[in-house]
Every structure is written in structure tokens, then in C-alpha cells.
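User: Please fill in residues for this 296-position structure.
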């Protein structure tokens, strides 16, 4: 899974309600996104290559008028808009509806390319001039939108996505500062703030000159909160890097000792905290079975 896949899966899982309000406000009002649950490991043969592919995001969301009735919200994220994606979404929607027996709402998020903003898109399948299928989905072209428009919105997700958009009046350092100020001043949990900030830092890169300009702007009294938030983010990124290195080392030791590891075990190790990884490393010295190492 690539960088943008991991980052945006976490971002959109956390702010699914915001995404629905941005792309389909009427649908958002008709559903209860916060009461939904995410369905992982949904895989299908990818078109046209035929390789197995895991869908980016799939949520089962109750309807507001009847919470027992559910709607599947399927979101795909593309780094660059591609022509064949419409047919792939159509194939996924068919298989999802058959597998789950629930209606499917498909949303395509293009980080670059495609028409700016939210557009309804139709894909039709015909045989000898006879239309046999008509499929509709929503495409959100992020990169071509105006950053100022989304920075003015109330949804926190919009402020992170603004980092990928084109500013109309703001210089690059001012653009980044505006995204950071919105995030710093909002009522968010620490995890939510980190996820939004990680998107801005990843996608709104500055030149050395622009970084110096940003530092100058952050030095102003009105922007001290932003500077402190960025320092906290940098500390967390450094700690996460150390933990990932510790996890990779332990995985290598476990594989050398016990052979190939099942996917759930790898995921458990990769998600463990440093203290837990240290405890498991010490157990590895005397353990005879993998289960002895990973006991709670």
C-alpha cells in the first residue's frame, strides 16, 4: 500500500462525515456516518489487469430515517485521474452489492487531474448499441479547487485537502500557514489534529526560501500556536519512525526464528507500542513457540 493510500485511508476513515458533507450534502443529511462501521479486506479482481486489489475504503452506514437499513459508501482515492477508473468502480459496485445485499454509493477522490470540485459521472455499458447498465458515481477533483474556498468551510477535512489545492491569492508560505492555523485553532482530538497536520506536511511542500518565510510568519505572536503544533507533530513523527524501526527489527528476528509470519501477526507487531516491542524482544530469547513471544 502506497503512501497516499495509507494516509488517505486513515484521513477519510477519521473524517468520513466531512467527506460526505463536502461531496454530497443531501446524502450526508440522510445518513448517520458516525454510526457506521468500516469493512476491511474487501478485495476484487482489478480491471483490466485482473490482479486482486483491496478497495480503498468501504463503510456500512445506517440511514437516518431507518437505522436498521444500511448503505455501503465506497471511496477510491487516485493520485492522478485515470480514464479506466470509472469502469473499475462500476465492477466493484456490482460485486459489493451482490456480496452485501445493500445499495452502494461510490465516490472517487482524484488528488490530481480530473475536473475540479464535485461532479456526477455516468458510466454506461452497451452491447451492440443496447444499453445494459448505467452506473453513476461522484468524482471529487481536489487539485484544481481553490484553496481559499475550502479553508473557509467548517469541515476540518476541507482544511487538510486545501493543502493539495491551488491558492488564488496566498503565497506558498501563507497558504501552508492558513491550513495550519485552521487546524491549530479547531476543537479536535490529538489524533484528529495529527492526521490533518500529517496531510498538510506531506502534500504542501515548500522550497528553502518559502520555509524561511513560513518560519518568519510563525515567529509572529499571532502564530505561536501553529509553531508549537508543528513541533509536537515533528516529535511524534520521530517517535513513530523509531517504533517502526523497532517493529521491522523484531519481525526479522521472528521470521528468522519461526519462519514466515501470518498477516495478522505482522499487523499486530507493526501496530505495537515501543514498550510492548521491547517486552516481546526479551521473550524471544527463551521462547520456543511464536505464541510465547506474543502473549499478552
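Assistant: Residues filled in for all 296 positions:
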Amino acid at each position: 500500500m502506497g503512501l497516499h493510500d495509507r494516509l488517505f485511508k486513515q484521513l477519510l476513515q477519521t473524517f468520513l462525515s466531512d467527506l460526505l458533507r463536502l461531496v454530497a450534502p443531501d446524502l450526508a443529511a440522510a445518513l448517520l456516518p458516525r454510526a457506521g462501521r468500516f469493512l476491511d479486506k474487501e478485495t476484487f479482481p482489478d480491471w483490466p489487469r485482473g490482479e486482486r486489489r483491496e478497495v480503498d475504503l468501504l463503510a456500512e452506514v445506517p440511514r437516518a430515517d431507518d437505522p436498521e437499513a444500511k448503505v455501503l459508501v465506497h471511496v477510491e482515492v487516485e493520485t492522478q485521474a485515470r480514464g479506466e477508473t470509472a469502469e473499475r468502480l462500476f465492477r466493484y459496485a456490482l460485486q459489493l452489492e451482490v456480496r452485501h445485499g445493500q445499495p452502494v454509493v461510490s465516490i472517487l477522490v482524484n488528488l490530481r487531474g480530473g475536473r475540479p470540485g464535485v461532479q456526477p459521472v455516468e458510466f454506461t455499458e452497451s452491447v451492440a448499441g443496447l444499453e445494459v447498465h448505467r452506473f453513476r458515481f461522484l468524482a471529487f477533483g481536489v487539485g484544481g479547487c481553490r484553496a481559499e474556498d475550502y479553508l473557509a468551510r467548517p469541515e476540518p477535512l476541507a482544511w487538510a485537502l486545501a493543502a493539495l489545492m491551488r491558492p488564488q491569492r496566498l503565497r506558498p508560505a501563507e497558504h501552508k500557514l492558513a491550513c495550519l492555523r485552521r487546524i491549530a485553532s479547531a476543537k479536535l482530538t490529538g489524533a484528529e489534529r495529527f492526521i490533518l497536520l500529517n496531510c498538510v506536511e506531506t502534500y504542501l511542500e515548500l522550497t528553502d526560501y518559502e520555509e524561511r518565510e513560513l518560519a518568519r510568519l510563525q515567529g509572529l505572536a499571532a502564530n505561536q500556536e501553529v509553531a508549537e503544533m508543528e513541533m509536537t507533530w515533528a516529535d511524534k513523527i520521530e517517535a513513530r519512525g523509531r517504533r517502526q524501526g523497532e517493529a521491522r527489527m523484531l519481525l526479522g528476528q521472528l521470521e528468522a526464528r519461526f519462519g514466515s509470519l501470518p498477516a495478522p501477526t505482522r499487523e499486530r507487531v507493526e501496530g505495537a507500542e515501543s514498550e510492548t516491542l521491547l517486552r516481546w524482544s526479551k521473550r524471544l530469547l527463551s521462547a520456543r513457540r511464536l505464541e510465547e513471544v506474543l502473549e499478552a
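For context: The first helix runs from residue 3 to 14.
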